[in-house]
UniProtKB/TrEMBL annotation:
Species annotation: Poecilia formosa (Amazon molly)
Family affiliation: Belongs to the glycosyltransferase 28 family.
Coiled-coil intervals, chain numbering: none
Enzyme class: transferase
Single GO term (MF): N-acetylglucosaminyldiphosphodolichol N-acetylglucosaminyltransferase activity
This protein's record includes keyword Cell cycle: no
CC per GO annotation: endoplasmic reticulum
Subcellular location per the Swiss-Prot or TrEMBL entry: Endoplasmic reticulum
Keyword Lipid metabolism recorded: no
Stated name of the protein: UDP-N-acetylglucosamine transferase subunit ALG13
Domain Glycosyl transferase family 28 C-terminal: from-to ranges: 3-147
Length: 164
């Protein structure tokens, strides 16, 4: 069953969960051949139930010890732009659509998403542009993230965050 895995990491990002479970988003995902939506909702106030989407089967949970198996089973990962979540999805070799939380102050997530997009490793959008992105996304343009370079990634993060 073709699956979309959505993760917000340890954060609260109800707007992403609302956006991805909207009727329009689930219709677009169904049109693209996805049948199952697995949602990791973190600290959010929303925990959609199995009947919450007319077009897809839905499973939702807050936290697990590991989401590696969920990522492994996914055909598409939709994630917040947290560095850990991005790195885990890219490391799993999954097509990744990052949804930047544009409500955050001092938003380093946008810088990270923009750079990884420029390097053709992921697509990114905001909640307000998610529908348009789902309509037009071309996952074939994505290139695998080179494995085994955590130091380079850490250096990039330090530079993006102004640590060094």
């Amino acid at each position: 069953m073709k699956t979309v895995f959505v993760t917000v990491g340890t954060t609260r990002f109800d707007e992403l969960i609302e956006s991805v479970t909207s009727s329009e988003a689930t219709q677009l995902l169904k049109f693209r051949g996805y049948e199952r939506l697995v949602l990791q909702v973190g600290k959010g106030s929303l925990l959609p139930d199995a009947d919450s989407c007319a077009h897809l089967s839905v499973e939702a949970f807050r936290f697990k010890d590991s989401i590696a198996e969920d990522m492994k089973q996914a055909d598409l990962v939709i994630s917040h732009a947290g560095a850990g979540s991005c790195l885990e999805a890219l490391g799993a070799g999954k097509p990744l659509l990052v949804v930047v939380n544009d409500k955050l102050m001092d938003n380093h997530q946008l810088e990270l998403a923009r750079q990884l997009h420029m390097d053709h490793h992921l697509l990114y959008c905001t909640c307000s542009t998610l529908i348009e992105t789902l309509k037009n996304m071309d996952l074939s343009v994505l290139q695998p993230f080179p494995p085994g370079q955590p130091k380079n990634f850490a250096n990039f993060l330090d530079k993006a965050l102004g640590v060094k």
